[in-house]
Amino acid sequence: MKKTFKLIDLDCANCAAKMETAIKKLDGVKDASVNFMTQKMTIEADDACFDDVVKKAVECCKKVEPDCQVVIK
Amino acid sequence: MTRRQKRNLVRIIIAAVIFAAGLFIPHTEERFSAWGIVRLCVFAASYLTAGWDVLWKAVRNIAHGQIFDENFLMAIASIGAMIIGEYSEGSAVMIFYQVGELFQSVAVGKSRKSISDMMDINPEYANVERGGEVEQVEPDEVELDEIIVVKPGERVPLDGIVISGASGLNTSALTGESALRDVCEGDEVISGSVNTSGLLKIRVTKKYSDSTVAKILELVENSSENKARTENFITRFARVYTPIVVISAVLLAVIPPLFDKNWGGWIYKALTFLVVSCPCALVISVPLSFFGGIGGASRHGIMVKGANYLEALAKAQTFVFDKTGTLTKGTFEVAEKKPAGISDNELLSYCAAAEQISNHPIALSIVRAARENGEIPKAENAEEIAGFGVKAEVSGKKIAVGNARLMEEVITDEQFSEIETAGTVVYCAADGKFCGAVTVCDVVKENSAEALSELKRLCSAKTVMLTGDRKAAAEEVARSVGIDEVRSQLLPDGKVQAVEELYSKKPAKTALAYVGDGMNDAPSLARADVGIAMGALGSDAAIEAADIVLMNDNIGSLPLAVRIARKTRRIVTENIVFALGVKIAVLVLTAFGFANMWAAVFADVGVSVIAIINAMRAMNIKKTV
């Protein structure tokens, strides 16, 4: 499954790159991209553990840039 | 400015005022005298006002295992300056850093917004007629076959067919063309275009998720996911750059003072190193340049699916073209009828009857011509053989319509000979007997030749044309538009093989671009380094298969796309060279004692801001052809 999330207050491009690297390393993630320009995060992961992966990805983002919020619909 | 940016601005101003006050306090050599302590307090107040969040983030990020981030580096550098007694320096550096960050955030926000606005073709609502009344709803709530009303000035929210009214539609957001498209009853309209004059009632033929506007938006939104090689390189580079500079800073602080005992001086130099070590200018400006290039292209109706394709296009030196619909208009006209043993009209109606099942442009032209002459007889058991033609039963006769190869297969008596003309010849056989041929001519687009010559001028490209057409017809077109190499009489899979072969022959470090109309050439579009589909408005297959989509049918957009790609690449290079150049220069000057912390702050945030402004140039490019 592939899903895109909006990021609010993602302030630095370097942080976006760091988030991306961290999320890509998570178990079950096939591909991930954090886009500073569109302020969006795309995660492609196995369906079975998707929600879990998203939760971990949000933690990754918080670690890199605590002010940045991930909008989960 | 956002609320956060405004708050930061206020903070910076307060810090700057306190800082200015601090400058009036007499400077004493004795750090712990009364004036010395007052001075420390005033500058510390200014410093903390400007930078408390940086310090806080540094601490928090270290707790999260994020060392070497810019907050940490700035914190160490400025606290270090305070400790060695450079109060004004420490707090000025923090103020300037914050000014730079604010600038950067405003500039990036602005550019992001202006690019996104440009690509914004999303209809906000649809006026739908339900139970005799017009309701305003979200476009995705409208069902098929519902009637929507589009008033002048509104955007068409869904694809459909006009059932009443007439107007001029502005499709410039989709195609970059400023000419209005006139529509009236029975015409198809495409979502995303803007109604300029009359009231239109439209019957919806596609749900929102399948509509043109949704397809394009999806393409645009996903475009920045495909990162260019340069972007990935910069990200990787940033990961090693920072640690290297930090390590050199440590060495600079520790080793030289062992010899000359000037601890304060060397530590100051080391702290300056830390300020320069943030790779932000690079990490921001490179993707922003590509984003600007993609945005600028979309303004001209050129949709690019990712920065990597823009990069590939900038390198492209082999351009492979499909003939029909790309270099030529793809609207054929019947030029000549040569019946053998039957009348002109009989020949045409046999051909048209069989060709009815095909949507090949040649088939369409024959059907069109036959319709003008009257009814077309019904065909039974019609079968299309790709690369050959059509076989069908018409009025009890076994009809075969197609090229010479098909004739050789079906004709049993030996009365068949190929006809040599510049047009495309469609042969016809009835019950194994040759019964004539229709010559169909395609018209070369007015600006094909001009576009190709500009392409040559831009990147001395090698141009190749592929076609399933016969040699004579192909060479005629090639001559008139100025193509270098022609491969004719190719079967559909022969095109991919030709692309494959050209691919292996292309010069090293260059790319191969394939330009087609997305009909029958999806494999070639996919095989090339960069697949470009033309005239894609309304053709979902082309939008899906290609990497770059020229929404209009204007081949002049191709050299424009190449120019945008090359300009973007140049800007990216400029930014990399400039940012790295300034940083390295400041590092070297610092090591030899010629630069202070102010220069370092400039090398960090000042360079970022300049690089961002430069990146925005990628968005602006003028049309020529």
List keywords for this structure.
heterodimer; A: 73 residues; alpha+beta; Alpha-Beta Plaits; four-stranded antiparallel β-sheet; 32% strand; globular; B: 625 residues; Calcium-transporting ATPase, cytoplasmic transduction domain A; Rossmann fold; 4 domains; seven-stranded mixed β-sheet; 21 helices; elongated
General description of the model:
- The complex is a heterodimer of chains A (73) and B (625).
- Chain A has a single domain, classed as Alpha-Beta Plaits, CATH 3.30.70.
- Chain A is 37% helix and 32% strand.
- Chain A contains two helices and four strands, in the order E-H-E-E-H-E.
- Chain A has a four-stranded antiparallel beta sheet.
- Chain B folds into four domains: 229 residues, no CATH class; 64 residues, Calcium-transporting ATPase, cytoplasmic transduction domain A, CATH 2.70.150; 123 residues, Rossmann fold, CATH 3.40.50; 109 residues, Calcium-transporting ATPase, cytoplasmic domain N, CATH 3.40.1110.
- Chain B has 625 residues and is of the alpha+beta class.
- Chain B has a seven-stranded mixed beta sheet, sandwiched between helices.
- In chain B, 52% of the residues lie in helices and 17% in strands.
- Chains A and B meet through helix 1 of A and helix 2, helix 4 and helix 9 of B.
